[in-house]
Amino acid sequence: MGAGNPEHITVQAVNALNRASVFFVPSKGAEKSDLAALRRRIIERFVEGTDYRVVGFDNPVRDSSNESYRSGVADWHDAVEGVYEQLIVGELGEEECGAFLAWGDPSLYDSILRILEKIRCKGRLDLDYEVVPGISSVQALAAAHKIPLNRIGESIMLTTGRKLAEGFPDNADSVVVMLDGQMAFKTVDEDVEIYWGAYVGTEDEILVSGRLGDVLEEIERVRQEARARKGWIMDTYLLQKPERR
Ligand SMILES: C[S@@+](CC[C@H](N)C(=O)[O-])C[C@H]1O[C@@H](n2cnc3c(N)ncnc32)[C@H](O)[C@@H]1O
């Protein structure tokens, strides 16, 4: 579904939306209600006619008190799998097609593909599914800042705030960081360049870029203000080591 701008929807996605008769839309909390509203806007704008149903559901939340991150995620995925399976069994007729509108691109820090495959492999349902690629927040960030992600001939690493907090990777000079609730960029050498964006692609988009040491406080301030104003935040950023000459 793209990363927040309804115009991220591709022609392939529009065609897929028009094959579905049921749309599964997660709905809970301030963040979820904004994101659910966007999903509904996309459905209303791109699906022809009104011969479909929108089914809301509560996505289970990961137990962040679990000391093991991996076992917390495994339990959470089991719970999500149960919810998805129930939705498919309970809401779809034998020949009907349902749609989950995955945020950004479904291959990137999203478990929906793992979960659907687990349900299919269990074999209890005669389930088939199709994956439609989308515009991820990473592409949206690069476009908003009008920058290429990679240095000429160099690699890009995609990682999370949790991993960045363990140290700047030593095998990449361009690092894209997602899922960073802790502002892990504060732990990084202040001479790197940062290209930061929140709510990228939406009407609330905020962009800040520059030498990390020069813009760190500004990012921290606008991030806190935006989060307090909207009740949730989604931000992503690219860090680049100074260019070698
Ligand atoms: C669970 S991941 C899903 C990523 C998604 N599959 C994608 O392709 O962008 C959520 C993270 O993506 C990033 N993100 C998603 N949408 C964003 C947006 N519109 N602006 C900035 N960051 C975004 C944030 O880092 C957020 O914590």
TrEMBL record:
Pfam families linked to this entry: TP_methylase (PF00590)
Occurrences of domain Tetrapyrrole methylase (ranges): 2-215
Record-level GO BP terms: cobalamin biosynthetic process; methylation
InterPro entries in the record: 4pyrrol_Mease, 4pyrrol_Methylase_sf, 4pyrrole_Mease_sub1, 4pyrrole_Mease_sub2, CobF
Enzyme Commission number(s): 2.1.1.152
UniProt KW GTP-binding keyword: no
GO molecular function: precorrin-6A synthase (deacetylating) activity
Pathway where this protein functions: Cofactor biosynthesis; adenosylcobalamin biosynthesis
Record keywords: Cobalamin biosynthesis, Methyltransferase, S-adenosyl-L-methionine, Transferase
Reaction catalysed by this enzyme: precorrin-5 + S-adenosyl-L-methionine + H2O = precorrin-6A + acetate + S-adenosyl-L-homocysteine + 2 H(+)
Coiled coil: none
PANTHER family cross-referenced by the UniProt entry: COBALT-PRECORRIN-2 C(20)-METHYLTRANSFERASE, PRECORRIN-6A SYNTHASE [DEACETYLATING]
Descriptive protein name: Precorrin-6A synthase [deacetylating]
Organism: Methyloceanibacter marginalis
